[in-house]
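>> received
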Amino acid sequence: MKKLGLVLVVLLVSLATNVAWSIPKEDKADMRTCGVTITDGDLLNELNEKFILTNFRSLGTWIAEVTSKDNWVGNNAIKIPKRKGDSAPIVLINNTVYPMLSSGRNDEKVVVSLNKYDTENKEVTQDELYAIAYDKEGDINLELKEELEIKVTEHALYSISPVQNSVSTPVLETTGPLDGTRRRLVKADVIRQKAALDKASVPKTGRVWVMSSTHANDLLLEDSVFEKGYQNRVDGAIAMNYYGFKIYEEVYTPTYHATTKVKLAFDSVTAGRTSSIIFHKNSVVKAKGTVERFARDKKADPENRKSVVGYQLYFGCFAIQDQGLAAMIDGVA
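>> returned
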């Protein structure tokens, strides 16, 4: 019996060793990412897709402030209710008149397709893997996820930013000292933006300011209060309350035309005015659709002996009303 037990142990150890070596490097990298053991290619794709949906760049970024409405999505399109007219409910104090009056609310519904974001495919050859001492396949997989998140977040901010100045979407200009041909952002400009939102009856709680790095640097030079909040920043949020705004800093913000002050196209190469974007949490929503991971293992490509991987994500960030949307752009000399 002892000999039989020893033989079984040897067989089990041998089997475990063979299974471990049968898992490709990329699968091992994603096992660390997802925290589970994966041996099936379809399951690997599914878990990577779920990882993107559940961990999409949210914690510590401005997009975490946007209400998620994934339940509005069907077939990668979203039905957005647009509030129509001045139909806010009336609040009665110490009412003694019954029955209570009732009124309806007329909404418009807009069906919008979610944006489709595709990464370029990345490939790695067997010769490359032989010549390097790190898991390049796993690193490429992670890089694709990160780049997808960055581009989607940038486009989301662009999508909810005002097209141009209007009564309901004020686009104001900075008025501080000249920095070359542009004027710096000063705290007086922040107060002017606050006053514009106050005038438009935008609720004070829930105002978010996504500040460009340029404008953040302006305030660091000008306002010691802002500097103190900046030094205490946690996970991207600079200050919990700066003149009524929750402040986030981003490297990317939309640019506006130097003369017309109209928002330039996304990823435009035209030089324009730097902006900071303001929104109210009740004015915008976000929604995720499907995500797919497309991959081919090097074993399925005997001619070239290279692995290929890419991602596709449906996502949208939309304004459901104009009230509460604003921008601060560089003033000029």
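>> Residues 6-39 have pLDDT under 50 and may be disordered.
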